Amino acid sequence: MSAAVAPTPSHALATTDPGVRESFAQDASGLVLVPDAVARPTSREEVVEVLRACAAERTPVTVAGALTGYVGGAVTDRGTVLSLRGLDRIVEVDAAAGVVRAEAGALLGDVKRAAAAHGLLLAPDPTSEEECSVGGAVAANASGARSLKYGATRAHVRALTVALADGRVQEFRRPAMEKNTAGFQLAHDPVDWFVGSEGTLGVVLEAEFQLLPLPAAVVGLGVPFRTAAGALAFVAEARARRDAARAGEALGSAGEAARVAAGALNPRCLEYLDAPAFAIARDHVGGTWGEGAGGYVYAEEESFAGGAEPALDAWLELAERHGALADDIQVFEGEGALRDARGMRHAVPATLNERAARYRADGGRKVSTDWAVPYPRLAESLQLAAEAAHAHGVELAAVFGHAGNGHPHTHFVARDAAELARVDDAVDATLRAVLAMGGTVAAEHGIGKLKRRWLPLQLSGVQLDAMRALKHALDPHGLLGPGNVLG
Question: Residue 429: which CATH number?
Answer without folding.
Answer: 3.30.70.2740
